[in-house]
Write a structure and sequence with these properties.
Order of helices and strands: HHEHEHEHEEHEEHEHEEEHEHHHHH
Number of domains: 1
Radius of gyration: 22 Å
Strand content: 5-15%
CATH class: Alpha Beta
Bound molecules: L-rhamnitol, zinc ion
Shape: globular
Helix content: 40-55%
CATH topology: TIM Barrel
Largest sheet: 5 strands, parallel
Number of helices: 14
CATH superfamily: Divalent-metal-dependent TIM barrel enzymes
Oligomer: single chain
Low-confidence stretches: none
Length: 414
């Protein structure tokens, strides 16, 4: 008997249909962030350094420098990743043909080549206004800035991005998640915590005033950033409350943006009771950094389990958000995305109703036992069969491809 047949039988005895799990997984879209490919640099002609309390550390050779290179690298990574994919863009990846176009006057035409790229590769697109790496974000403040002219610039940017997102949705005939994250905050004890939040609230109202079809708006909170340790304007309470009182705006949860023992897996079921959609940024926090490459660890599995057992595969919008400049960037994309997909497959292979019954019947010892025994079920054989079915390299075989690409293409970039 081959490994997969054995695994199938083993899961069947536990009441799980492994082939059905594979079919389900093949239809779960993962939104892959373009910014892993170039360390969040983007293509702006002004070429400001990365700011906003985020940092891509490392200087591994071969990062993408142009739209053509980033697109080629993304295609290479995508060819090694099974299942359905989307591409997540930032406004700073506008393609302006060498012309300086400031953020507040960006237009759909600056994303035409991305739409063609998505059509060619059968990808959905998600979008983000870029509120960092810009001279007007210099004091670390954008939509909450005390100076109205600064706020107005960023409001115009927010409005421009929603129009671009709507246009992309129309072109692709498929909804676009437009996620707003701002770096605003203070390094040290503020004298006024309420004022910045009042200004942010008013700015958001101005940005969301226009009604658009095809755009799913979200707001992403954070607990702190580098150099912005004491206070963040866009906190979790602020954005959850904002979204709860503004239909059509959703709270986006980035699992790198909370205190280390605070778990996004626990927040998912709570918010699903109140929101019909819930967008995620899946990442891995390590000490001060919120953006390490996703690996197949406990919390990723718990996040996946909450999505699956709440029957929320079509309500939770899964996006990735990490950036590692110290390793081959194609490898970073592939490891992160395949890890998320492994977690989803793992979750789809759990006997969820049986586990739930044990909890409801207070059979906690048996529940713990089963949780633990399931960990050594032949999950790997199902993953391998899934990769074969999806025609992507199984196991570590994909890395040979990434290495070849590095040798032939990336290493020639200087
Ligand atoms: C920053 C947020 C945000 C960014 C991207 C580039 O802490 O996570 O989502 O990572 O928008
Ligand atoms: Zn994020």
């Amino acid at each position: 008997m081959n490994l997969f047949d054995h695994a199938k039988q083993k899961y069947e005895q536990a009441g799980i249909d492994a082939e059905k799990a594979m079919r389900t997984l093949a239809n779960i879209p993962i939104s892959i962030h373009c910014w892993q490919g170039d360390d969040v640099t983007g293509f702006e002609v002004s070429g400001e350094a990365l700011s906003g309390g985020i940092q891509a550390t490392g200087n591994y050779p071969g990062k993408a420098r142009t739209p053509e290179e980033l697109m080629a690298d993304f295609e290479k990574a995508a060819s090694l990743i099974p299942g359905k994919k989307r591409i997540n863009l930032h406004a700073s990846y506008a393609i302006t043909g060498g012309k300086m176009v400031d953020r507040d006057v960006l237009l759909p035409e600056h994303f035409k080549l991305w739409v063609e790229f998505a059509q060619k590769n059968r990808l959905g697109i998600d979008f983000n206004p870029t509120f960092f790496s810009h001279p007007l974000a210099k004091d670390g403040l954008t939509l909450s800035h005390p100076d109205a002219t600064v706020r107005e610039f960023w409001i115009r940017h927010g409005i421009a991005c929603r129009r671009i997102a709507a246009w992309i949705a129309e072109q692709l005939e498929s909804p676009v998640l437009n996620n707003l994250w701002i770096p605003d905050g203070y390094k040290d004890i503020p004298a006024d915590r309420r004022g910045p939040r009042e200004r942010l609230k008013r700015s958001l109202d101005a940005i969301y005033a226009e009604k658009h079809t095809g755009v799913i708006d979200s707001v992403e909170s954070k607990v702190f950033g580098i150099g912005v340790e004491a206070y963040t304007v866009g906190s979790s309470e602020f954005y959850i409350s904002y979204a709860a009182t503004h239909p059509g705006v959703y709270p986006l949860l980035d699992n790198g943006h909370y205190h280390p023992t605070e778990m996004v897996s626990d927040k998912i079921p709570a918010l699903l009771l109140f929101f019909d959609k819930l967008p995620l940024h899946v990442t891995r926090g390590v000490r001060w950094d919120s953006d390490h490459v996703v690996i197949f660890e406990d919390e990723i599995r718990e996040i996946a389990k909450e999505i699956v057992r709440n029957d929320a595969l079509d309500r939770v919008l899964i996006g990735l958000d990490f950036f590692d400049a110290s390793i081959n960037r194609i490898a970073a994309w592939v490891i992160g995305c395949r890890s998320m997909q492994k977690a989803l497959l793992y979750a789809l292979l759990q006997p969820n109703s049986r586990l739930k019954n044990l909890q409801d019947e207070a059979r906690y010892g048996e529940l713990m036992m089963l949780h633990e025994e399931l960990k050594t079920y032949p999950f790997g054989a199902v993953w391998e069969a899934y990769c074969e079915q999806e025609k992507v390299p199984v196991d570590e075989l994909w890395f040979t491809e990434a290495e070849r690409y590095e040798r032939d293409i990336l290493s020639k970039r200087t």
